[in-house]
Amino acid sequence: MQHPPEHPEPQRRGLTAIDGALAMIAILLIVQMWLLTATLEGFLAGHREGVLPAAIVSGVLLLACFGLYRFVRGVDRETRGRR
Amino acid sequence: MNPLRDTGRNTERNTEQEPLWREEVSIFAADERYVNRRQFAKFLVLTSAGMFVGNLWILIRSWLTGKTAYPARPVALVSEIPVGGSRLFNYPGPNDPCILIRPAENEFAAYSQKCTHLSCAVTYAPQRARFECPCHQGYFSARDGRVLAGPPQRPLPRILLQRQGDRLIAVGVDLQTERS
Chain B: which residues have CB within 8 Å of chain A? Predict the structure, then answer.
């Protein structure tokens, strides 16, 4: 007797897509953490010229993370909605 | 009640009619992986927002602090310090310890006494012409405050001095950022 797969093909693809997006978010977050520590270190050392660009880049990274989250939410809704 | 919205493709849940708990707490075991991942993604995005707020805070602090005006204040008399000796004082505030040294007859220099690593008090070693931090063996040059060895990454801030007769007057602080 053959058992049905735990996750049918669309669900499995959905999980893979979500996992990929999660990995991307994690990488962006690590970059953002490094950026914050480097900016703080520079600011305390009296280097103020990099503070504004760092804030802009951090905002862009946040928007990218939010975009990936919306992607995760969309895939989640669509894949679960098929059931 | 059919939880699916009739959109033609029949693929979207009817979020307008469904309560929030049904979206966040799945009643299907197979949906649990999706809910967990989505909630983890939400947590990561909130952490990302926290990082952005941190950068904004630094930016606002940078705008607000601006240039500091330092007062002129007598810190010592020349006759009080022997050649090779040192004297402690506070500048610009009462909680900013500094050290004044006299390496030669007519040579004076002053630096912040806080090590730029973790703010331990540095001591003057005249025989080696350097400042030594006893906490983590950080060494700074007594000539210009630059880092000679150890974990500090930045030079000691230099206190700008003026000599008026027998008096030594502190007139400012040079963070020496171009050296770091």
Answer: 4, 10-13, 15, 26, 28, 30-31, 33-35, 37-38, 40-42, 44-45, 47-49, 51-52, 54-56, 58-59, 61-62, 153-154, 175, 177, 180
